[in-house]
Design brief:
The chain is of the alpha/beta class. It is rod-shaped. The protein has a five-stranded mixed β-sheet with strand order 4-3-5-14-6. A three-stranded antiparallel β-sheet has the order 11-7-12, covered by helices on one side. Helices cover 42% and strands 21% of the residues.
Length: 299
């Protein structure tokens, strides 16, 4: 493998036209540069420059032109690699993130706005997968509302309260006893992820609602509640955009269903960009919690 320093010396002499100018560009003495060109010639088995002497400039030889063509390809690749590494350490590059509806709709828009200010060239790829076990081996980060794998790193982003979402005036104002949902028509998410926590709370309280519709779409649930198909128990932030909808009412539950806990999960060393996205997610998540406390939809 040819030494890149020797190839850089060849390129500098070819571009500048003299050993003196090339040495000044590279920060060498002219003697040191001549030694590097001589070392290159020994490596390639022939002269890369004809040196006519006097005031006449060195002329590149046919062998020199051949080596120079390859040298510039290698030097460009080296420069590109160095630039990519520098940008990586500065927080550029690509990050693959697993997400789900609430995170996509409520958290990530604010996170990405802040990330773009700091790293305008960041390449963020989002993958929305409503499953208990996202493919962490394909992702840098994944947001989950269930505990992730035991061998992963978990950082809590936020937690939010489960509330009853009902058609306006379907229940009296104020909290609703969980027992009042026994036998009532309800719409719900599929019984995975956080919905499994909700249904476990029903089971512990011996409450068996009549699930008349399931969908993975949060907006589909609130639309069916608004249409009178049934009520729903949802995390507050999943219905954040409908909290002032006069066709809906929001109620705390007694006893409360355990809070939903949203975590960001990863395995192994993170890139600077992924690490910063995780930090911003926690910052924004805590701000959402403060906003929720100040303007929550449940009375």
């Amino acid at each position: 493998m040819l030494d890149l320093r020797l190839l850089a010396a060849l390129d500098a002499v070819a571009r500048t036209g003299t050993f003196g100018a090339a040495a000044a560009e590279l920060g060498y003495t002219q003697s040191t540069l001549s030694q590097q060109v001589a070392a290159l010639e020994r490596r390639v088995g022939g002269a890369v420059f004809d040196r006519p002497g006097g005031a006449r400039r060195p002329r590149i030889t046919p062998l020199g032109r051949l080596v120079l063509a390859q040298a510039r390809t290698l030097l460009e690749a080296d420069s590109a690699a160095r630039d990519a590494i520098d940008r990586f350490h500065a927080g550029a590059g690509r990050v693959d993130v697993g997400t789900f509806q609430t995170v996509t709709n409520v958290l990530l828009p604010m996170v990405l706005d802040r990330l773009r200010v700091e790293h305008p060239d960041a390449d963020v790829r989002l993958f929305e997968d409503e499953t208990d076990e996202p493919p962490l081996e394909l992702l840098d980060l994944a947001f989950l509302d269930v505990p992730g794998p035991a061998d992963a790193d978990h950082v809590e982003v936020f937690r939010d309260e489960h509330v009853l979402v009902a058609r306006a005036r379907a229940f009296a104002p104020g909290p609703v006893a969980l027992a009042h949902l026994h036998g009532r028509a309800m719409v719900a998410l599929p019984p995975i992820c956080d919905q499994a926590v909700v249904e476990a709370a029903f089971a512990r309280a011996a409450v068996a609602p009549d699930i008349v519709f399931r969908t993975v779409d949060n907006q589909g649930i609130t639309s069916m509640v608004r249409a009178g198909l049934g009520s729903a128990v949802m995390p507050v932030l999943s219905v954040w955009g409908q909290r002032h909808d006069e066709a809906l009412s929001f109620h705390r539950l007694e006893p409360a269903v355990p809070d939903r806990v949203v975590r960001v999960v990863s395995r192994g060393t993170l890139s600077p960009l992924a690490s910063r996205l995780r930090e911003l997610s926690v910052d924004v998540g805590q701000q959402l919690v403060r906003d929720l406390a100040a303007d929550g939809p449940a009375p």
